[in-house]
């Protein structure tokens, strides 16, 4: 038996187990009930898979092989330290530890129960990535939690979608400090003598190489960049070596983004995931400055630069004499989207018309040769090949007008991206007007 059974009680009946919430290599997490305060809690139990056994009758935990006893005791102490670290952190976006005790030959700690799901579960449930707007709404909360962690001299070291919970009201909670380390006050880096676990794709080079002296806020910032990438693309982030192997300036091979992601967000994530730790933002405060200056946050946190970005660049008056405005934020989105669409459609149309022109011309030559061999008159040859002459002319004209046709296709894709295929949609009209005014001149 790997976990406690439902209705099992702990601490003399103070806590009652309802069900298993999750299981990992170093512990079980249960949904429990505090019978004293009549409230639901989460209870984490230290239990090492493959090393611990459990008595089915008493629930007591033991070490199956004697040589593993020392490892179990060392990891159990780390588990206690994890609880004590979280206990010190006072932030609404970090789960709060309320109790720590030993029972059944192991250790338990009791924390807030978050009625929601982690972001990894959300991606699996929906089967699609989050929008930039959705990510921008939860990002300030994650950063607020991370700043508290760093201000306490702690590195999380396992930041990923599975460790970010969002409750039913949209409130974020940072969880699972099992890999966290305390800052070495004298030397910097992390205080540890044992290997630090990590998750591929979310760990920077210094963490994968276990180079403790180079750990810092930038280590968690890399993981946050990877987390944002995963949320926006629903793709697993690449390894640092894969990013280095991509010789393109924008790393689009290793880090491809959907078309609708803004250029500012792409650049920010590239900075956060830079394989050179010194090239990343060096603190959460520095990252917040970059975010605010690039207008990633919407609504609450506005700087002068963000306000400037909302100034009108085009004003449209509709038939009801109502004026509507398009801002620089809209401009950035439209230009970025249209550039990608234009390049793709231009290449496709050019290739298509060149192939058709060549085929038509080849058939025209064959018809002329056949006509000559059959001794047709010039008029008969012209009449026989007229259709293919017409086709060749049409494709030449299309090639000469390919730019205009490409623009129409881009406009169509822009309409679909906005979410409406109708030209009478107000927002669509404004974005199309912006497209013609801004993109064609850029």
Uncertain regions spanning at least 5 consecutive residues:
184-193, 297-330, 420-427, 437-442
**Main beta-sheet strand count, sense and barrel state:** 6 strands, antiparallel
Number of domains: 3
The count of β-strands is 15
Please give the count of helices: 13
What is the N-to-C order of secondary-structure elements (H for helix, E for strand)?
EEEEEEHEEEHHEEEEHHHHHHEEHHHH
Tell me the structural class. alpha+beta
Strand content: 15-25%
Report Rg: 31 Å
**CATH architecture grouping of the largest domain:** Orthogonal Bundle
* CATH C-level of the largest domain: Mainly Alpha
The main sheet orders its strands as 1-2-3-4-8-7
Query: What would the average pLDDT be, to the nearest integer?
Result: 79
- State the CATH topology of the largest domain: Transferase(Phosphotransferase), domain 1
Describe the secondary structure blueprint for this structure.
Layout: E1 9-10, E2 15-24, E3 27-34, E4 39-46, E5 52-54, E6 61-63, H1 69-88, E7 97-103, E8 106-112, E9 116-118, H2 119-126, H3 132-151, E10 154-155, E11 164-167, E12 172-174, E13 181-182, H4 205-208, H5 217-233, H6 240-245, H7 263-272, H8 284-293, H9 304-309, E14 312-317, E15 323-327, H10 328-373, H11 378-400, H12 402-418, H13 426-438
Antiparallel strand pairs: 1-2, 2-3, 3-4, 4-8, 5-6, 7-8, 9-11, 10-13, 11-12, 14-15
Characterization of the model:
Helix content is 45%, strand content 17%. With 442 residues, the chain is an alpha+beta fold. It folds into 3 domains: 9-112, Phosphorylase Kinase, domain 1; 116-305, Transferase(Phosphotransferase) domain 1 (Transferase(Phosphotransferase), domain 1), CATH 1.10.510; 323-441. Helix 5 (217-233) packs across helix 7 and helix 12 (402-418) runs antiparallel to helix 13 (426-438). The protein is elongated, with a radius of gyration of 31 Å. The termini are far apart. Mean pLDDT is 79; it is low at 184-193, 297-330, 420-427 and 437-442.
